[in-house]
Amino acid sequence: MSVPKQKTPKSKTRKRQYKNRLKNIFLSICPQCKKPIRSHHVCSFCGTYKGREVIKTKGAKKQEKAKDGKKQETV
Length: 75
What we know:
75 residues; two-stranded antiparallel ribbon; 2 helices
C-alpha cells in the first residue's frame, strides 16, 4: 500500500469537500394560496402548478368547503 509523500494542503482538502456541503433551499410564494413553496414544484397545500390544478389535496378540499359555506350563507 502506498503512502503519500507530502501532507495534503487544507485548500486541496476543502476544494474536494466543497461539493458535499448543504445547499440552500430557495422558496417562492404560491400565487393561489400565498404559501411558501419550492421553485418549479407543485404546491403541496393547494395542488397547483403554473396556475393549473395538478393534484387534489386535503388543503384544497378544505378551501372548497369553506367557499361553499360562504356562498350558502350569502344566498
